[in-house]
Amino acid sequence: MITEFLFDMIEGVVHGLLSLIPHWTPPSWLTDGTFGNGVQAVAVKAAPMGAWVPWTVMVAACASVLAVWAGTVVLSVSLKLYAMIRGGAS
Fold first, then answer.
1. For the chain, what is the radius of gyration of the CA atoms?
2. For residue 72, what pLDDT is reported?
3. d(CA 66, CA 46)
4. Rounded CA separation 4/24 (Å)
5. Backbone phi, then psi, for 40, in 5-degree steps?
6. 3 state SS of 87
7. Which among 81, 67, 87 is positioned nearest to 10, based on CA atoms?
8. For residues 49 and 44, what is the distance between their CA atoms, to the nearest angstrom?
9. CB atoms closer than 10 angstroms to residue 56
10. Which of 12, 19, 23, 42 has the smallest number of CB atoms closer than 10 Å to its CB?
11. What pTM does this model have?
């Protein structure tokens, strides 16, 4: 019951923070297929290099680096907010 209350409270805070972001419509070059076609063309041209470049390892390495970076950003922001709430500064 306490956990449910905490989750509801966290959800309310996240929803409140996200509601502060103004509505954004993506540009036409991103939605009309031009961007997707360009990415697909690069992927088609890079696929034959699979014999020399291990793409699965490269993608996994890049994804793990981005995940660790995102985790550190979330942890840093969380610690800063916690310090602000407690009244201290870090």
1. 21
2. 96
3. 22
4. 32
5. -65, -40
6. coil
7. 81
8. 10
9. 9
10. 23
11. 0.46
Taking the C-alpha atoms of residue 10 and residue 4, their distance in angstroms, rounded to an integer, is: 10
Q: Judge whether residue 63 has pLDDT over 80.
A: yes
What confidence tier does 66 reach under pLDDT thresholds 50, 70, 90?
A: very high
Residue pair 56/67 in contact (Cβ under 8 Å)? The answer is no
Structure token pair of residue 78: 């969380």
pLDDT digits (tens, 9 = 90+) for 13-61: 889 888 888 888 877 877 787 888 888 888 888 888 878 888 889 889 9
Cα dist from 82 to 14, 24, 60, 87, 88, whole Å? 15, 30, 32, 9, 9
